[in-house]
Amino acid sequence: MTPLSNPDRRDLDAEALDWFVRCGEQPTAELRAWLDADPAHRQAYERWTREWSQLDALPSAGVDGLRRQLAADKRQADKPRARGRAFWLAALSRWTPAISALMVGGMAYLAWSQWHTPPALYAETFVTARGEQRDVTLPDGSLLRLDTATRVEVKLYEKRRVVSIPDGQAVFQVQGDATRPFDVLAGPLKITVVGTRFSVRHTVGVPGDDGVRVAVDEGKVKVARAEGWGAYFAAAEVLTPGQQLSASADGDMAPVTPVASAGIAPWRDGMVSFNNTPLSQALAEFERYGATGLHVRNAAVGALRLTGTFDPRNLGNFKRNLPKVLPVQLLPQGDVMEIAPLS
């Protein structure tokens, strides 16, 4: 294969950058066709992928200017005829030196941070079993209420406080300390507060509800992408009392919606609430608290919508009333009951 000349290389880099900005990490059929058309296309695209992936480890101060420039360039790209060869070549000429400078600074920063990051003053992991709830008081005075089948990992540093939720849900009453921000990491999101009360749900094993949900009872929190190059360019959302936000497992955030105080973590009172929730998803939520003895085989039955508040530890009332609110019947099937359509 004949090596590309410098002008051809710049044209190809500009074209690859165009594809990367448009598609990012979500390849389309058109992008795949372009990548498969020539090995040089894939190499150019992978170069941009590697370049941007390096931003994940860089200090945020150095990325702020690049973020603002990208936002301005994307606005310009949305204008008619703006996304031409000249536009992307100009963008390429701006971004490549900026990224290179950040790479050099970032490597120095990483080397420094590996040797100078102080150890956590406090580190502990708390786990609740299926059907168990637990109250935890942290050394800084913050209170955590853990729901069933939940795992939280706590690290307190001199200048910051970090709690990770790999799975489950919890309510936080954060002790105010402006010098030590409190970050909650849940899936693709990072929730940052100073002092407030809020709930975070990240239930990876519940079909249809495996993303993240944040609801604020008091104070305010900032919700943003936790990692990935998109974290530097996506806008953060600030939630105030009576607001909630949901995000998919990929980190796509839905619009902020209102939520009543009673609807923020009703599990604290031993209840679960559903609002137009698919029956199959409701059963998966019940199963987080214990075996239900209920099974759905029919997809149409699983898609039926359920609204109401129930005690997950006492399903007798739920079983008795389910056929009254949905067109189903409960049929014995060995040691379980099948929720079946009416015959």
TrEMBL record:
Pfam families: DUF4880 (PF16220), FecR (PF04773). Residues 125-222 form the FecR protein domain. It comes from the Bacteria. InterPro entries: FecR, FecR_N, Ferrdict_sens_TM. Residues 15-47 form the FecR N-terminal domain. Signal peptide: none annotated. One of its GO terms (molecular function) is sigma factor antagonist activity. This is Sigma factor regulatory protein, FecR/PupR family. It comes from Bordetella holmesii CDC-H585-BH.
